[in-house]
Amino acid sequence: MLFWIVAAAMTAAVTALVLTPLLRNRQTGGALPGPRAAYDMEVYRDQLAELERDLARGVIDNRQAQAARTEIGRRMLAVAEEGKRETASPGASSGKASRAVALALCVVIPVGALAVYIPTGEPNLPGQPFASRETKPENGAPAQVMQAIAKLEQHLKDEPNDLQGWLLMGQTYTRMSRFDDSVEAYRHAVGISQGKEPGILSSYAEAMIAANQGMVPEEAARTFEAVLQSDPNDARARYYLALARGQAGDMRGALDRWVELAAQSPADAPWLPTVRQRITETAGQLGIDVASVMPQPLPAAPQGEAAAPAPGPTREQMAGAADMTPEQREGMIRSMVDGLATRLRDNPNDADGWLRLGRAYKVLGEQDKAVEALASGAKAAPGRVDVLMAYADALMVAGGEEDAPPPSAVAVLREVLAIQPDNPQALWFLGLDAARTANKGEASQLWGKLLTQLQPGSPEHAEVQSRLDGLARGG
Predict the structure, then answer these.
(1) Residue-range domains of the chain with CATH
(2) Which domain of life is it from (predicted)?
(3) How far is the C-alpha of 336 from the C-alpha of 311, rounded, in Å?
(4) Where are the alpha helices (DSSP H) in 437-458?
(5) 181, pLDDT greater than 80
């Protein structure tokens, strides 16, 4: 009996809640209160403000921001138009209809509740504790997925050194937008792998960026730097380190790094569209013609074939090298370098191969061979700024001049400046050459242009400013 009394009271309360707006609508003539439309407009204004903040922080790009503005604007216009129609429509004519609906609901609500409850309800069923009830899916994930995640979490508690388990957990948390949990999962994976797997380090750093709402934190930048120590060609690390430059205010530095990454990426690389979009946006912010800096990517691998990996030691060779004597290790490296040189004699148009060979000779201390290899690379790809800069650097090292580049390097640097008028390295070294030859006007012009690209307060900015001050004093 107590149950039915409580049920009747609850039904009466629900009926009153439903009928009150209808009766009030009848009394006020059915006019829609203005605060609702005003509230909606205020929400959309807040969304526009948040959108601008996300754009300023680099969380979204200009194209995404424009699309979002258009959608929010459409919704604001719809609210405004709806408000006009409802304000103009007479409300008195709806009084009879509201009264009829109210009377019908007085009957339908209690009768409908009884019709549903009597065949299915059990008033004598004891209460069920909340902890024993089935939990709702998280982030829209099916119950089976949540059960699998719970099993994986329990497995990792029992087997905390399961590297593949932590990687799977990190990927799963990322897909569920649980970025903080993803960071912790990848942190465990990094610990188990002892920080020696570049792919795991990159995933860890990327998770930190996602957890930081698109901003590159200092720890993520350091992690990506460690990745490049192991794999200088890691596209993910190169992309995000360029992004960190841009977020720190060095837009020109970010642009140069994205341009270099695009030039060294295959045409079918999945990251290339994103890199090109960044180049376009950053060049626009700097007032640079995009066509003058947008590089051509490397040819894509033939359909059905995987891109050939860059020549280098395999994992087994690297493991074996750890047990070699220094002489044996040097012999292995020499063998690989000689093999690359032989291959390039049969394929002299492989600019990237010449670039790798030149760098290898430089590491071995054979500067003359490095110059020859990089000269071949510059010949194979005359417009490749990265190859030309490596060639100029080799010429400067071989020349042994620290204060200014030798004439051969100056000629190459002028080629670079003709392709990239704002290239910071070319501006710096050509300024040194101009200052050495007492061409103070040219040196001042070159370094002044370089100064605009550097962040005030940085060591580089201070050095260039000091050089300009010395020119002004006649030193």
Answers:
(1) 2-120 (no CATH), 144-293 (1.25.40.10), 325-392 (1.25.40.10)
(2) Bacteria
(3) 8
(4) 440-451
(5) yes
